[in-house]
Amino acid sequence: MALGSCSLMWFRKGLRIHDNPALEYAAKSSDFVYPVFVIDPHYMKPDPNAFSPGSSLAGLNRIRFLIESLVDLDSNLKKLGSRLLVLKGEPGEILIRCLEQWNVKKLCFEYDTEPYYQAIDVRVKDYACSAGIEVFSPVSHTLFNPADIIQKNGGKPPLSYQSFLKVAGQPSWASSPLSTSLSSLPPVGAYGNCEISEVPSVKELGYEDNGQDELTPFRGGESEALKRLRDSLSDGEWVANFEKPKGDPSAFLKPATTVLSPYLKFGCLSSRYFYQCLQDLYKNVKKHTSPPVSLAGQLLWRDFFYTMAFGTPNFDQMKGNRICKQIPWNSNEELLAAWREARTGYPWIDAIMVQLQKWGWMHHLARHCVACFLTRGDLFVHWEKGRDVFGRLLIDSDWAINNGNWLWLSCSSFFYQYNRIYSPISFGKKYDPNGKFVRHFLPILKDMPKEYIYEPWTAPLNIQAKAKCIVGKDYPRPVVLHDSASKECKRRLAEAYALNKELNGLVSEEDLHSLR
Ligand code: FAD
């Protein structure tokens, strides 16, 4: 036990030094600060039965990214005279043990709206209160406090992006500069018999080096995040003219968007700092794009989904979710597996799914295409199944944003134009007529002539043989025929919508809730 006033800084997301109000508060008038990260087996334990390397909840790309982020955080803390203390176990239990043993007077951690953390936090806060420990848990993962927006909107989250913008206005902190750096930190106190380790390697966590032929090009950590932000913002014209729907989803050597999502997910980059940099840049250009399509507009989408997720019970499921259309999705495991394992026979869809497996990141419109294909476009598989696959494999996997976008893409909520379906053939072709993206992620098709690259089953047999890719042997035939499958999907959605409407007209919102 250290003598003097001790604070414990509990890192979960928010893996950064810049714009970190919890860390700043922990450092203020403290003799010692314990910067702690708890490796949570629930999230990190290898699952030998998973279809690709990783735990049951996170693919290896994300685990590796997290470890890289922790190594970088540790190194940045060391520059300030501190270090990261890594512990392992159920986070709530470990935290309470540390608070007991280290005579902590202040517990600081970033507020988290995700249900998993909310449950842990209640336990830890209850203990801290009973032990007379001050708790400081600021909102700094998002631009706004979702609870404030909900309160301003009369107790409900605003259901559309435009109404969200109206209610939200400017973030309260935006008028004064954010404090972005600490120059030093109080030392770490003695830690007695608590089992502290350095940041483990992925191998030490129990993962084999899987010899994947292509690793994700994105490295974790605050240093990398700030560099990537600087690089993105260095082209002021690109930022000022950014229009999300105009980006090319097939661009992979130089993606059409910032690829800052993995850094925002873990809080290696502060969304508030990012937003402030954008506002500064906008002030210095003659004209710039606006939400929803601008880059600042993208950060506001993020806050929109956080607010919706926070204010909607059962946001992550169809049942009991009052904003979700009730649709009789199927649970066809074979079709789901073909989609997940990039075996649908549609090269555009399969290449995107390989990019997900190998890189843990895809362009937003590419995500649109595969999510639409799995659900309302072709396979009619439940959006919750696709959400789980993305949830595991994306490096930027984010509870609020992932669920929100799956609700959107499956026409279960927010967006209802189910007649607008992405073609798994012509959509990709429009951006990438030569099929560079497909050839990169599906090398079996690398010699297929461009006329057939999006529909290899239509190539004459001699051409397939010349390209060393026989459809049905080297590459699968389409799992469904898009024209008939998409018609059937539309018919089923029309039926489900009619039924939802009937229910909506017949019963009160509360009754409707209990029917689900
Ligand atoms: P940029 O265009 O550079 O945008 C900057 C930041 O704005 C992003 O990093 C992200 O934090 C935010 N943002 C951009 N688009 C959206 C959006 N539609 N909704 C909310 N925030 C947005 N994004 C995630 O971060 N995590 C997820 O788990 C996730 N799941 C998705 C699932 C589906 C089915 C779909 C269609 C989209 C999903 N997205 C998710 C949203 C979006 O595709 C990614 O945020 C974006 O592609 C990340 O790339 P970027 O950083 O280059 O984005």
From TrEMBL:
First-tier enzyme category under EC: lyase
GO CC terms of this entry: cytoplasm; nucleus
One Gene Ontology MF term: DNA binding
Keyword Nucleotide-binding included in the entry's annotation: yes
Site keyed Electron transfer via tryptophanyl radical: positions: 329, 383, 406
Record field: catalytic activity: (6-4) photoproduct (in DNA) = 2 pyrimidine residues (in DNA)
EC nos: 4.1.99.13
Family statement: Belongs to the DNA photolyase class-1 family.
PANTHER family, A to Z: CRYPTOCHROME, CRYPTOCHROME CIRCADIAN CLOCK 5 ISOFORM X1
Name this protein carries in UniProt: (6-4)DNA photolyase
Natural source organism: Rhamnella rubrinervis
